[in-house]
Amino acid sequence: MTQISVRVDGVTYTDEVEPRTLLVHHLRERLGKVGTVVGCDTSNCGACTVHRDGEAVKSCTVLAVQADGSEVTTIEGIAQNGSLHPMQKAFHEMHGLQCGYCTPGMIMASIDLVADNPDPSEHEVREGIEGNLCRCTGYQNIVRAVQQAAAEMRGSTPDTLGAQA
Amino acid sequence: MTAVEDRPATAGPAKEVGQARRRKEDARLITGKTTWTDNLVLPGMLHLAVVRSPFAHAKILAVDVEAARSAPNVVAVLTGQDFKEEQGSIPCAWPVTPDMVNPGHPSVAVEEVNHVGEAVAVIVARSKAAAQDAVELVDVDYHPLPVVVDMERATGANPDLCHDHLDTNESFRWIFDAGEAGTGQNTDEAFAAADVVVRRRFVQQRLIPAFMEPRATVVQPQGDGYTMWSSTQVPHILRIMLAMITGVPEHKLRVIAPDVGGGFGGKLQVTPEEVLTLLVARKLGKPVKWTETRSESLMSAHHGRDQIQHIEIAADREGNVKGLKVHLLADMGAYLRLVSPGVPILGAFMFPGIYKFPAYRFDCQGVFTNKTPTDAYRGAGRPEATFAIERIMDELAVELDMDPLELRRKNWIGAQEFPFTTVAGLEYDSGDYDEATRQALELLGYDELRAEQQRRRETNDPVQLGIGFSTFTEMCGLAPSRVLGSHPYGAGGWEHASIRMLPTGKVEVVTGSTPHGQGHETAWSQLVADELGVPFEDVEVLHGDTAISARGLDTYGSRSLVVGGAAVVNAAQKVVAKARTVAAHLLEASEEDLQFEGGTFSVRGTPGTGVSIQELALATFAAHNFPEGVEPSLDADATFDPVNFSFPHGTHVCAMEVDTETGRVSIRKYACVDDVGKIVNPLIVEGQVHGGLAQGIAQALYEEAVYDADGNLTTGTFVDYLVPSAADLPHFDTANTVHEAPGNPIGAKGVGEAGCIASTPAVVNAALDAVRHLGVSDILMPLTPERVWRAIHQGGDGGDRATAGTNAYGGAQTETTTGVSTPESSLGGDR
Amino acid sequence: MIPAAFEYVRPSTVDEALRALADGGEDAKILAGGQSLIPVMRLRLAAPSTVVDLTRVSELRGVREDGDALVIGAMTTHSDVVSDPLIAQHAPLIAQATETVADRQVRHRGTFGGALAHADPAGDLPAVALALDAEFVLAGAGGRRTVPAREFFVDYLTTALAEDEILVEVRVPKLAGQWGMHYEKFNRVAQAWSIVAVAAAVRREDGHIAEARIGLTNMGPTPLRATATEQALAGATAGADAIAGAAAHAAEGTAPSDDLNAKADYREHLARVLTRRAVTAAAGIQG
User: Which residues contact B654 (CB under 8 A, 6 or more apart)?
Assistant: First the structure.
C-alpha cells in the first residue's frame, strides 16, 4: 500500500492504495466519483477521460499512485457555482449525447481540445476527439456542441471581448 | 361588436409534439450524476469474475479450483458441477420451426465448452481485484474437439459437429414461399419465364453491438426475494425468464434497469452472467456484483449479423422485376439465445424491399458453429435483407445496362398505391419513395457529383468517385401480438403505460418501454403534455423497474414510440375522459357541453368558467365533492397492441472516393431523406438517424468480428474491433418527409434502426460504382483498403482477411481477449 | 481489468532509477508514459514484479540543443514534442509523426523515449528516429553509452537496452542544407497504429535530390530503412518519374507480417506507394 494525496474537484483526499489501482478505479470506488466511467481495457474509448493538472488523460491508463500530489478534475467538478460549464450546456443544447455513457469523457476531452484550439473547425474537432468513442450519436451533434461551446468560451474570455468587429 | 361570444378559448401552450425539446435525461448525464449498474455499492457486496474457456470446442475433463479457492479474499469458486441442477438453460423464446434443434445453453459449462469465452467457473471474492486474480488460478483440463467455424463447411458433407450430442449442425430450416402462401406467383415458373436472372452470394459479416457501457449486474437477496439491477434493455422480459429458469417465483424477483449505456440489441438478452449472478447471490445469501471488462464483452456478449446470402433476381429486358429467391445460411453461433433464430426470420419479409415482385421464395438454414451466439443487433434481420436487395438491384441494373435509380423507380410501389400488400404478405402503410429520392438527390448535389465522377474517369484519376443508393423500407413497431404468435414467438408485442395524476397536478407517466439512451423521458413528456394540456416540465416519466412499471415488453425493434408511445397517448386520453366526468360534476354541466383545451375543461359558450385538469387532480385527491358512484381517481392505464407493423422508408445516397492506388475508401458526402411518420421530437429523430448511419457505415467500412481457424476471436479488443471515431465518419446531410402511419394514434413509424438498415448498401454500392469500370463487381465487407485494392488489382471480391490480430500493444491478445496466447506476449518498453 | 499486483518505485533521479531497476531484478519494468505498458498490464499480458516509474525524473524531460544535435529527453511527452520550437525548427518530421500517435489524451502521457524503448514496429517514432539517424543514450550502472538507431532496434519489441539500463535521451543530428520532411501514415481508423507508414527526409540541391533518408514503419519486426530507394534517389532529378522509379524499390529487404489489416504483399505495395508520396511531399514536388 502506498499513501497518496490527490486533489479531486477541489477537495484533497488522502488514501492508502495498492500501486496497481488505476486512477479511474480510485476515483470511482474509493472517492465515489462515479461520474467517470470505464469503457474498455485498451485505452481506446476515452470514457474515463479526466483532467490531471489541467491536461486530459485517460484515467484507466494512469495509476492512482501516479496522481499523487496532482490536481484531478472530473465531470463532477466542472460546473462552477451551480452553473454548467459551457461544454456541458452545449452538449445538452445540441443533443450531443444519447445514452450518455461516453459523455463525461467526451466533455472532458473536448474542454481540453478547446483549451488548445479555441476555434476549431469541424475537421479539427473530429480529429481532436479521435480518442473518444461514442456508439450512439454518430458524432455530428457532438461536433456541433464542441464548436458551440468553443464560441461561448471565446466570447467569455476577457481577452477576446470586443474582438468580434 | 361583442367580442365575448366569439372569443377563442384560452390559447393553450404551443403544441409540444413536433418541437425540438432539449432532453430531460441530459441533466444527470452531462454532470456525472448517473446511476450505472456498476456504480452500485451494497453493504457486504461480493464481486464475481468469470473463468472463460480458451477453447472453442472441448470436453471438460476436470476443473481444479483449489488454488483459486484458497487465494486471498476469495469466498467461493463455483463450477458447472455446482450449478448443473439449478441453472436450466438460457431461454430461446423464438422456436421458429416445430422441429428446431436447440442444444440447450447452460450458463456455466458442465461437460463441454462450445465457444471461446464460454463460462466454465465463477470466482466470488471480496474485491474485484481478488476475483480477477483468482481467475488465473483455476486449472481446467480440456480435451480439445474439432472446431466448426465455417457455415458452408458445417452444412456440407461429413462435417465436424459443433455439438457432440447432436447429429447435425443445422438448427432449423425455415421456408417462406409466396406461391404457397398465396401472396405471389410460383417462383420457379417466374424464373423460368424471365429474360434475365442475376445471382449473387453476399456475406453479412459478423458484428459486435459494442454498446459503450459494459454489462453489469448486481443482485441483492432480501428475505425470500431478490432485487436485480442489470444493464439490460429488457428488465421485464428478464424477470419472467429468470423466474422460469431459476425457479425464483416471479413475484419474488424485482428487476431494475437503471441508467443503461446503450444496447443496440446487444442488451436484449437473458445472459449467462445474469443467471449466474442471481444463482450465486441465492447460494451465498449475499449481494453480488458482476461487471464485465471490454474484452469479456466483445467475446461473450452476443454478436450480430453473420449470414451468407444467396440471392437471385429475375427480370425482363425492360427492367421489370419478375421474381426473387433467397437462400440464407444464418450463423447461430454455438447456442440459441433469446431470439437468435428469429433474427433471420425478421429479415425474411424484407428482402423484396420496396419493389413489386410478383414471386418470392425465402429459404433459411440456421447453422451452429463454435462461436459466440448471435442475436439481435440494430435492425436484426432487416439490415441483412436490405443489403441483399439493394445490392442486387445494382447488379441487375448493370446486367440490364440501366441506371440503378431508373431500375428502382420502375419497380417501386407508387405513392398512390398505399396501402400495398407485398409478395411477402406485409401491408406497407404509407410513403412516397419518389419524393424522398428527389429530395435526397438534391441534398447530395447529385448532378455535380455525377459530372465530377465522369471527369475523374476520363482523366484516369487515381482517386475515383462513385455514387451509391439505398431506397429502403423496414418493418417497425414490433409487433402485433397475433402475428408474433403465428411465427411462433414466445411473447406478445403490446406495450403498456399508466398515468398517475398527483395531487399537486404533476403527472407521473409509467412506461413499459425501457429506454437506454433514446430519450423516452423527453418524448413521452411531450406526448402527455399535449394530451393533458399540462406543462412539459410537470411530467415525470418512470421506467425500467418491474416494481414501478409492472407490465412492459421493453425497447427494441424501433417499437418504443410506435407501440409504447401509443399506449401513453391512449392512457392519457382515458385520464381526460375520467377527468371530464369530474369536471362536469364540479362545473354543474353535462359532459357533452364541456370542451377540453389547453388542459382546461370549460362549458361551451360560458366564458369564465373552467377547471384545469391539474385542479381536478387535487379535487380528486380530496374527493370531498365527487360525482356519485365514480371512483376517486383520474389515473388510467392502457395497453396498446398494434394491428400492423409500421414501415418507415427513405432514400440514402452516398458519394464515395476510392484511392485506387491504396484501396482506401472515404465517404465524400452522405445524404438521406427518411420518412419515419409523425415526428414527435426532430432533435431526437435526427440523433437516431445519425447514430444509425454511423453503425451502418461501420459495417460497410470498419467492423468485423474475426475468428481464426481454431475459433479464437482475434478482434478481441477495441484495438482490432474498429468502432469508428468522429474522425472516421463523415458529415451527414439528413432530412425527412412525413407520411403518417395509420396504425397508431401518434402516426409515428419508428426511427431507431432506419439509419443502420439503410446505409450499409448505399456505402458499398457507392464504392463499387467508383471502381466498376475497373472490373470490380463485389467487395466483401468491411471494405478494408486491402480488400478494395485486391479487388481492383487482382480481381475477385477482395478475399478473406488474414485472421491474425495486429501487433498493437505487442499483440494485445491473451486467453482473456482472444483465447490464444501469442509467443509475443512478453513485453518491453512503453508507448 | 486490473493489473496483477506489483511493487512500485518512483525515483526522482536517473541514479535512483537505475538502483531501483537493479533491485527489482529481471521482472522489473520501466514505466515511462504508461500508455502501452498499463493497457498491457491490464490485459495481464505483462505482470512485472516491480514497476519503476520515471515520471518524476525531471532531468529526463525536455528538449535542448547541444552543438550539432538536438537532444530530446526520454520522458518528454508527445504533446511537448509536438509543440516544441526546437523540434519544429530542426526535426519537424518528429513533430509531424508524433502528432499522429494515438490521440490527444495518450499524447499528454506518452513519452518520446517510452515509445522508442517499446520498439513496437507499428509505432510511429522508431522509423522516424531511424530515418534521422538518431542516437540513443543509455544509462546503466557502469555509466552511459550511445547507440546509433540502426543498432538500437534489435527485434520485435526488443532493443539494445540491457535489463539494467534506461534510455535517458535521444540525440538527433541537426540537418544541414535544404531538407524537406514528411511522415505518410496509413491506418484504418484515426487512433489506430500504422498498417504501414513512411518517414522521409529529403535534401534538395539544384533541382536534384542530393540525399534521401527513408524510414519504414511496420514493414518487419523492427523499423527499417528503405535503402535501395535511398540509393536510387541520391543524385536523382527531383521529379515525379525519378521518385516513382526509386520508390518502386521501397519494399526490398523488408519482412512484413500478415494480420487483419494487411497481408505481406499488400504491405509491400503500400510501402512503395507511401514512399513515393512521402518523398514527393518531402521534396516539395506536386504529386
Answer: B467, B468, B667, B669, B670, B759, B762, B763, B765, B766
- Tell me the backbone φ, ψ of residue C61, rounded to 5 degrees: -110, 130
> pLDDT, tens digit, for every residue of B452-478?
999 999 999 999 999 999 999 999 999
Let me know if B72 is exposed, middle or buried by CB neighbors in 10 A (0-12, 13-18, 19+). exposed
Which grid cell is B620?
380528486
Which of C173, C201, C222 lies at the terminal end of a domain, its last residue? C173
Contact status of A19 with chain B (Cβ, < 8 Å): no
What one-character DSSP code corresponds to residue B805?
P
Domains of chain A: residue spans and CATH: 2-76 (3.10.20.30), 86-156 (1.10.150.120)
Q: Are strands A49-52 and A55-58 parallel, antiparallel or unpaired?
A: antiparallel
The pTM for the full model equals 0.96
Structural domain containing residue C230: 179-282
Q: Where is average pLDDT lowest: B695-699, C134-138, C257-261?
A: C257-261
Cα B669 to Cα B467: distance, rounded to the nearest angstrom: 9
C-alpha grid cell, residue C23? 533491485
C117 at B interface, C-beta within 8 A? yes
Q: Looking at the partner chain, which of A34, A97, A140 has a beta carbon nearest the beta carbon of B26?
A: A97
CATH class of segment(s) B26-33+494-640: alpha beta
Question: Under DSSP, is residue B98 helix (H, G, I), strand (E, B) or coil?
Answer: coil
Contact, A58 vs A49, CB < 8 A? Answer: yes
d(CA C58, CA C2): 28
Does A36 reach chain B within 8 Å, measured CB to CB? yes
8 A C-beta contact, residue B323 and residue B742: no
Fold of B380-477+645-794: Aldehyde Oxidoreductase; domain 4 (3.30.365)
Do the Cβ atoms of A34 and B34 come within 8 Å? yes
A154 has a chain B CB within 8 A of its CB: no
Query: DSSP assignment of chain C, as one string?
Result: --PPP-EEE--SSHHHHHHHHHHHGGGEEEESS-TTHHHHHHTTS---SEEEE-TT-GGG--EEEETTEEEEETT-BHHHHHH-HHHHHH-HHHHHHHHTSS-HHHHHH-BHHHHHHHT-TTSSHHHHHHHTT-EEEEEETTEEEEEEHHHHEEETTEES--TT-EEEEEEEEPPPSSEEEEEEEE-SSTTSPPSEEEEEEEEEETTEEEEEEEEEESSSSS-EE-HHHHHHHTT-BSSHHHHHHHHTTTTTT--PPPBTTB-HHHHHHHHHHHHHHHHHHHTT---
Q: How distant, in Å, are the alpha carbons of B653, C62, C69, C171 from that of C59?
A: 56, 8, 18, 15
CATH number, domain of C45, equals 3.30.43.10
Q: Write the pLDDT tens digit of every residue in C214-253.
A: 999 999 999 999 999 999 999 999 999 999 999 999 999 9
Distance, C-alpha C150 to centroid of its chain = 12
Between CA B211 and CA B267 the distance in angstroms is: 8
- Which of chain C's residues have a Cβ under 8 Å away from the Cβ of B784? 188, 261
| Mean pLDDT within C81-110 | 97
C68 with C169, same domain: the answer is yes
Predicted local distance difference test score (pLDDT) of residue C226: 98
How close is the nearest chain B Cα to the Cα of A158, in Å? 26
ipTM over 0.90: yes
The grid cell for B451 is 459530372
List all residues 6 or more positions away from B340 whose beta carbon is below 8 Å from its beta carbon. Answer: B92, B94, B302, B332, B333, B366, B373, B374, B375
Q: How far apart are the C-alpha atoms of C181 and C184, rounded to whole Å?
A: 10
Q: Which three cell numbers stand for residue C111?
A: 513519452
Q: Please, is B413 exposed, middle or buried when counting C-beta atoms within 10 Å of its C-beta (0-12, 13-18, 19+)?
A: buried
Classify burial at B62, counting beta carbons within 10 Å of its beta carbon; exposed 0-12, middle 13-18, buried 19 or more.
exposed
